[in-house]
Specification:
This protein has 4 helices and no strands. With about 170 residues, the protein is mainly α. The protein has a domain of about 30 residues. The longest helix is centred in the middle third of the chain and has 90 residues. The radius of gyration is 47 Å and the shape is rod-shaped. Keywords: Lipoprotein, Lysosome, Membrane. It comes from Homarus americanus (American lobster). Belongs to the BORCS5 family. This is BLOC-1-related complex subunit 5.
Length: about 170
């Protein structure tokens, strides 16, 4: 292909993946094309001297050779290669589409999980604040109990007529 075509293909499919491997299912019977090829008997070249000197040519023999069969075989092979390439391209395109879909799904899931992690971090921070407030309340309660004991001790040290009524703290 020309450089322009190859550049255009590169621009159209930047993530083109080419994988070639053997078929997973083998046919038990012999391929008819292979059977035809195996039925052809062994033969020597028609042109004299072709075995020893490949550059020696006999113009009379070349005129008698029919290239039509070879051209037909080459066309069939070209068609086969084109079909195989088209099928492979189709499967690769489907695979690329599926990969993009999976990538988009994974990106969405990662985004959702990141959002959830942030919200859980906020909840954990709020729980930490609740724990701090709880500890502060426990310290306040202990201080209040100490103050009430001191108040009762002071009240008991006063003369009876100057004493205050006992302080009763109700929670609830």
């Amino acid at each position: 292909g020309s450089p322009r075509r190859s550049r255009r293909r590169q621009l159209q499919r930047p993530q083109e993946v080419v994988v070639v491997r053997e078929a997973t299912n083998y046919t038990l019977g012999l391929d008819p094309e292979l059977a035809k090829l195996q039925s052809i008997p062994t033969f020597l070249p028609i042109m004299r001297g072709a075995l020893t000197a490949p550059f020696a040519r006999d113009p009379e023999v070349l005129e008698r050779l029919d290239a039509g069969a070879m051209v037909a075989l080459c066309r069939r092979y070209q068609t086969h290669l084109h079909t195989a390439a088209a099928t492979t391209t189709h499967y690769q395109d489907n695979l690329s589409t599926k990969i993009r879909d999976v990538d988009a799904t994974v990106s969405g899931l990662v985004s959702q999980m990141t959002d959830r992690q942030r919200s859980f971090a906020r909840y954990a921070e709020k729980l930490g604040q609740v724990t701090e407030v709880s500890h502060a309340l426990i310290r306040c309660h202990a201080s209040l109990n100490l103050i009430l004991e001191s108040l009762e001790t002071l009240n008991d040290s006063l003369p009876i007529h100057d004493r205050l009524e006992p302080f009763v703290w109700t929670t609830g």
